[in-house]
Predict the 3D structure of the following.
Amino acid sequence: MNIWIVTTGNSDVILQHDLNWGKFHEEVRDDLECWDFACATPRDKDNESVGFTVPARVLGQVYAKYPDYYGDDLSFPLLDTYREYFEKEEIKLKKIIVLLTDQAQIFHYQEQRIHEKSPYWQDTSSIEPLLKWYFQKHQAIFKCQPEFVTLAPETENKGIDHWDATLSLVTKVFDDLDLESNYTAYVSHQAGTPATSSAVQFVSLGKFKDVKFIVSNQYFDESYQQKSESDEIASSSYWRGMQIQKARQLIITGFPGAALKILEQIDGISQSAIAELNSMVDFFNLYNPLANSSQELTVPQATQRIIDALDLISFFFGQKNYLQGITLLAASQETFLKVAILSKVALIKDTVILNNSPKKVCELLEWVPSGLCLSSSIDSEHISFKQSVWQKLKFNNYKNNKIINKNSFLIGWLKNLDSNFPSWNLLDWYCDDNRIFDDDLRNQFMHNLRGVEDIDVAKYLLGYQQSISVNNVLDTYANYVKQPFINAIDYFNLFYKREKLNNKLQEIANSFK
């Protein structure tokens, strides 16, 4: 089904001449609210043949009383242009929606209406009878009579020229109309205020799958007579631009996966840019497709994942996505403990005799998915041998711990390896077996699916140090967790690459055109 949505403006109906205007206006002026500025103004002062304009509200009120003179006195230049387009293209319209305006509700005081420039006089609601006559006259072409819909703002100081309010108003009007999304919508939005035009563009693109914009182009012919003709602009370019802008914002705000879904539906997108975006999706999932899975539990790979995670946590906290941020932070701290321990253990030169040969004890410590443990190569060795290995590795709680993954053991072990290790409040609190379980937001998230407020997150990030009073989550994380965390990684001389995530996201977003 083809439908046509057309906006109306102050110059959509003009006087072909001013022969009757003065007389008609004089006869009805006592019924008008104001008649001080009702003169017919030439559209071109050097060429009166192109007609005269009168404020739309006044024109409609006057000529509503003289329907017999419509054909001789009135001209509809913009509608004529559109009509010629539909006739030439042989487009059959099943529905016509004509958008009028009426701001009487917000310009309800006399002092608001006495000024010639008041938007009130530009309203088109009063020219509805004139427009009905026009469509009836050309019913052979349009085949249907239009449905008139009035945009009538009610909020003070938010008229038709107010961008946000008009967008909401047009959205509501479109929602109230019985219009299916599978309609082919022809949209003419040139008449009226820029706010109305933009709102109609935006809402129609969002509501209909197939939108064609019909615009009037004015020009002068060889005899310098003003002419106009209509062009059809496919919505694809509008839609494409809007989708790309939407995807860019999603990328910049940390939702590359959602952006990828949008961009995959658009033709002509750079595949190299898509590849970069795919890599960013992997980054947000802490996944490196080029990495060997056997290397994931190694110091270099894990250190880089920690650094990446710390930047991601900033994004999550900035979006108030506390569940993701706190869960990822807990995982980062636990991974850090293992990485730091392995980095210090690698410096231990002590050896043991294994299979009649000296073996470095550092080579007998392994990192498996369930935690740190002694190498399977010494499974058959006597318990006393294993205990001696643990002692040389400076781990004291070795008696019944084949695999070490308890945080309190790990931080104690790390401090045995390096008593000067610079910890931070949250890490110490998180590794304390005596901490209050109800305060552990990660456990509350994971085990009870409980909610949380900003102040709760800030207190948690501070390790419940009462002497520090900070309420802003992002600043608290940056100053009391992220920076000390990075300082500790630097302290252990752990190598990583760091690229400012915001800059990288902006660069990727800009690559889509």
Q: What stands out?
A: Residues 322-345 form the longest helix (24 residues). The longest strand covers residues 210-220.
